[in-house]
């Protein structure tokens, strides 16, 4: 029987899978998507995450791909006002983190199973059975829901996702090419009206990650992300007529909010990463907190499988990571307030959200 079934192949699920496989446990990873994505999404690794990936044997590829020491270049009302070097962490696209972890996991004998989202879960005294979207049933001694903020596993368990979503506090994002724009800086254009646009050069590609306050339609509602909309926003904020954006391979709309699961454990099924908590993006802590969740869960599940104190270890995971999630939501809310105050003035920029 499989020791642990992991739903979700993002950084949290893949970190957990590598951790457990290195412990000699039998792991399966199932993923709702039909193939890996190539979106930048979460784009920075902190020191603690890099330490984890070093232990797992995946950091070499990440370090070769990523970039250290990016300079934040702030413009205010189209005027360059500040350059801020950053020395901590590694700038790298989320898809590249996942690629390195998948390669490491494959070397450990485990392949991600795509097109296999979890559609039903039943539990017994000795294990869990999950029904997958492709019709298969998979049994395991434990299961982990690492399947994101809209977690199917959390929903199937009936676990409330408590908190709030700010329907009007939105952002549009995408990966775009910007030929002619310097890749030496993370460009951040802010305006005295409180809006802005940022273009971050993504290492190992010729693209930038774009983040911006959205355009509003005639009813004052946020418009969806699109390449055409990105160009209009760029022209408005940057006023560089020679730059034409292209190749919007990934676009998304993001709504600010803070939510956490009411509990992280239902019998033999546990939650981690965005399935357990979502929060404001200031500080870039989401992906990195999911990595720490995965490490803690790997340790707890290994203890549950190997000794008489297993239930205590699982309860300890839930208590520890619920506390960490609550602190994270408070911390990121404070960072977001600091960032929003800073970008409305000519001085500091998004570095106000860094520690």
Automatic annotation (TrEMBL):
The keyword Flavoprotein applies. GO terms for molecular function: FAD binding; oxidoreductase activity, acting on paired donors, with incorporation or reduction of molecular oxygen, NAD(P)H as one donor, and incorporation of one atom of oxygen. Keywords: FAD, Flavoprotein. Residues 2-329 form the FAD-binding domain. Gene3D superfamilies: 3.30.70.2450, FAD/NAD(P)-binding domain (3.50.50.60). Its cofactor is FAD. InterPro entries: FAD-bd, FAD/NAD-bd_sf, RIFMO-like. Pfam families: FAD_binding_3. This is 3-(3-hydroxyphenyl)propionate hydroxylase.
